[in-house]
Amino acid sequence: MSSRLHYSNDDKSPLIDLLNCIVCSEAMKIEKSSPDADGMDIIQYRCGRCGRIERLRLFRRTRDALGLKAEGK
Known about the structure:
The chain is an alpha+beta fold. About 10% of the residues lie in helices and about 25% in strands. The chain has one domain (about 15-70): Single Sheet (N-terminal domain of TfIIb), CATH 2.20.25. It is built from one helix and three strands. The termini are far apart.
């Protein structure tokens, strides 16, 4: 196997460059991720240029919720 990073099982990998800083327009990087009291993930991004921090709550849908929505329930 090569030395490249492989993120196929990492469900946060599409979120790595999700945000741009509103101050300097640089792509923000994930600094940490931790669960909140409700079990949702709180993702903290930090701008490498100006140090601005943004926190987002990640809502995950279950497979059952997707099936009910498709059936119109």
